[in-house]
Amino acid sequence: MERRAPAVPVQKDQDILAAAARLAGEDLCSIADLTSGEVRAIVKLGHDVKLNPREYRHALDAKQMVLMFEKASLRTRLAFETGINTMGGNAIFVDQTSSPLGEREALADVARNVERWVDVIVLRTYAHDTITEMAANSRVPVINALSDFEHPCQALADFMTLEEHFGSSAGLNFTYVGDGNNVCHSLMLTGAQLGANVTVATPRGYSPDIEIVTKAREIAEANGCEIKLTQDPQAAAENAEAIYTDVCVSMGMEHESTKRAPIFRPFQVNEALMSKAAPNGVFMHCLPARRNAEVTDAVLDGPQSIVFDQAENRMHAQKALLLLLLGGLANVEKFSGQ
Q1: Is 257 labelled as part of a ligand binding site?
Q2: Is 153 annotated as a binding residue?
Q3: 5-57 per-position pLDDT tens digit
Q4: Residue 151 among known ligand-binding residues
Q5: What are the two backbone dihedrals, phi and then psi, of residue 239, each rounded to the nearest 5 degrees?
Q6: Catalytic residue ranges
Q7: In angstroms, rounded to a whole number, what is the distance separating the alpha carbons of residues 96 and 68?
Q8: What does DSSP say about strands 120-124 and 173-177: parallel, antiparallel, or unpaired?
Q9: Are 144 and 132 in contact (CB under 8 A)?
Q10: How does pLDDT run across 185-226, given as a tens digit for each residue?
């Protein structure tokens, strides 16, 4: 399968320069916090960071990042830690699994302490309100590394990966099959920001949040693309250039496993469903995958699967995000002095 990253002279890119000026010191709670230009900037900068890592190796010298995670993580934690380490900064991991945020002391007080020691807070939590409350009480940027409502870092890496394969997100037919969850929400918003046509196929009762759908459709209309909802995975997969799924039982919802299994069985991504995709169609998953549940081994390990490219690009997209929120481009030679 041919793969190509866009050849963009990023040092003169107006989206990146505008994003660097506006986003320094800001939070990222939701993709909806960003303009279309800022989403494009993060993705384009992610490509450049990936292609030219040595140019960014001192961009975040002496910057301190804390990761406060209430949920288990492999990709998010390692991608952030290795990302900032390779740009001169330092990562501190604070395990919240045994003492969830807000129980030992008020969340606002946690924010007012932590901001005195670090330059950025990366938060992975259950309730989205925890993200927004931390952001409201912190003077340093807060990044949503997953909440029950959104997973913006995942979506940025996913569309960066699509651009590697297709050259551009604009006009792509992107299909999400499964639970209308946090990952689905961020994919809808990001796809709309980048001009992709997004179709979401979910079982009845598991549709994405109506506020997200409304917001994504507003953005899509402005960018000349569409957001569609359906309960028919077969129709949704027709001629799709990307078919994406996630687990149907997210962390914290294990008590619903028995109930959900038969409901989501018709939404499994298998060889029959992938056969309906476009000839150059790819399969995507945010991982971890439950093999032979929401996706079969044949698809996950097959030639159309790009799931490990997605995983790798978590680091590059998150490096781009950190560079913009922490003002790191001022330390990169090709951006300095502009």
Answers
A1: no
A2: yes
A3: 555 668 779 999 999 999 999 999 999 999 999 999 999 999 999 999 999 99
A4: yes
A5: 60, 20
A6: 124, 151, 154, 246, 286, 314
A7: 6
A8: unpaired
A9: no
A10: 999 999 999 999 999 999 999 999 999 999 999 999 999 999
Please, which pLDDT band fits residue 135 given cuts at 50, 70 and 90?
very high
> Burial, 278: exposed, middle or buried (Cβ in 10 Å; 0-12, 13-18, 19+)?
middle
Give 255 or 223, the one with higher predicted confidence: 223
Cα 283 from Cα 176, distance rounded (Å): 10
Determine contact, residues 189/215, Cβ cutoff 8 Å.
yes
Give the H or E element holding residue 285: strand 282-285
Q: Which residues pair with 92 in a beta bridge?
A: 66
The DSSP letter of residue 292 is T
Give the span between the Cα atoms of 91 and 96, in whole angstroms.
16
Q: Using the Cα atoms of residue 290, residue 295, residue 301 and residue 304 in order, give the sign of their dihedral.
A: negative
The mean per-residue pLDDT over the stretch 119-123 comes to 98
pLDDT tens digits along 303-319: 999 999 999 999 999 99
Lookup: tokens for 335: 């951006």
Beta-carbon-side half-sphere exposure of residue 144 (alpha carbons within 13 Å): 31
Bridge partners (DSSP) of residue 175 are 199, 243
> Is 314 in contact with 154 (CB distance < 8 Å)?
yes
Kindly report the CA angle at 21 between 46 and 323, in degrees rounded to 5? 35
